[in-house]
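This protein record is not my work; I was only asked to verify it. Would you go through it and say whether the fold makes sense for this chain? Here is the record exactly as it was handed to me.
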Amino acid sequence: QALTPFLPFPSLVGKIWLMLTILLRMAVVVLAGYPLYQDEQERFVCNTLQPGCSNVCYDLFSPVSHFRFWLIHTVSILLPYAAFSIYVLHQVAMHIVRMHCLVHGCKGNRGLSSPKDVKELCRSAVVKRIDCAADNLSVLNFSGAYTVHLFIRTLLEVAFAAVQYFLFGFFVPDRFSCYHSPCTSTVDCYISRPTEKSI
């Protein structure tokens, strides 16, 4: 059997979809998110001169840096895929070793230096009708592991969306009011580019 089914994705569409989501997400975070949020605290202007009040209000408005939160989100989403890829590579390597042992028993003491050698030997054995236990050379099936990997990624996406909502919400307000020590009264703070950040 051909070694092409060892690819870790079920179809070309799946591979393109994964690459687009990874590249698009990284592009949005790095090229759009970082320039937009790098000066966030500097442009968070409050109508007070009370020392420390603006810092406290900004901490209440944004408990975690948006940019760092999105970086952690992106890396966390990639971890299940990395684990799945390592699992696939391990299983493929073990399968090649089993094929090597099978062909080695059929063909004598000939050494195999690459997976291509294993493929060629097995193909020639089948052509010459040598009993190479071809039934044992089944195609590896990773659909179960792939489904688990997708399920974990989906759970992570939902969890990070919930955390995003509870930390920041999904819309950036024009004005943020806070009253917290050391502020002596209710202070109104204004966020830069709220419409662009909401989009």
Remarks:
- The first strand starts at residue 45 and ends at 46.
- DSSP finds six helices and three strands in the chain.
- Residues 11-198 form a domain with the de novo design (two linked rop proteins) fold (CATH 1.20.1440.80).
